[in-house]
Amino acid sequence: MATTYTGRAALLIAIFFCFLDITITIFGLAWDGKDFTFDNIGHWWNDFFSPNYDFRTNPIDFLILALIRTTVLLIGGLAVWCNPTTVPGRIQTLSNVHFALMLLIVAFSPTKLLAFAEIDSTTLVNRLAVGDWILMIWSLFAALFVQVIWGSIFTKVKPTDCYLHLPDDSTSRVEAERAAVAKETFELIQRLATYMFKEWPFYIIAFSCLFAYSLARVFIPYYMGEVVAAVMQPEGQAVDYSKLNKCVGVMALLSFLGYALYELHKIIS
């Protein structure tokens, strides 16, 4: 038997995740600097409204994305709590729109990583703070979690037995409406599942190539500089072959990953 939820349970899950999302995002912003301090949040927030704002250096965008995710979840949670009879079916009809929004948020993390690399990719690994990595990784997974909550919890909310006191004709009408909504929901799920089954290779390839390109833009120049630095030692100083081997190995791994994705793209296409 499929798992179902009450409107109250769905709302509590949404509130809990919203609290977790905002907390981790604030934690990442506070660690986005030389030291962990909440003054960093004020610094990035004020910089966002200043004429000197630069998308390539300011991570406050992740807080805006967290607020968007929170708004979406709270609206959905409140809706299924207030009207658990018809809202889950309507939420199912909006699943494609919600999925597209979450895909954009997922794609934002590698896009922001590329923006960070635009200034000087050779020093990016040393320039990025711990908070930058926390924000990019969490934003990606948070969007996936929101999609799971929207598609696997909000759409499975069932009303309580508050209609038991109604007359027989009212009960029959309510049951007929539920059956119609369930049938419509099943048809939408079936169409969406068919579409996703046909198109899933292209989603995987698109995001894999985007991540591979991001890693290549960031790490290959960095490790290339490390190789040159390891070889071009000052006169009289021995070459550090352990560091050189490590850098060459990482570059080879990234190159192999790019080649594998290219071959996979040819096979699927």
From TrEMBL:
Query: Any idea which UniProt keywords this protein has?
Result: Membrane, Transmembrane, Transmembrane helix
Database matches in InterPro entries = ABC1_TM_sf (IPR036640)
UniProt cross-references to Gene3D superfamilies, sorted A to Z: ABC transporter type 1, transmembrane domain
- Which sequence ranges are marked TM in the entry? 9-31, 62-82, 94-113, 133-154, 200-223, 243-262
Q: Provide the GO MF annotations for this entry.
A: ATP binding
Which Gene Ontology cellular component terms are annotated?
membrane
What is the originating organism of this protein?
A: Plectus sambesii
Q: Which domain of life is it from?
A: Eukaryota
Is Nucleus given among the entry's keywords? no
- Which protein, by its recorded name, is this? Uncharacterized protein
SUPFAM superfamilies, sorted? ABC transporter transmembrane region
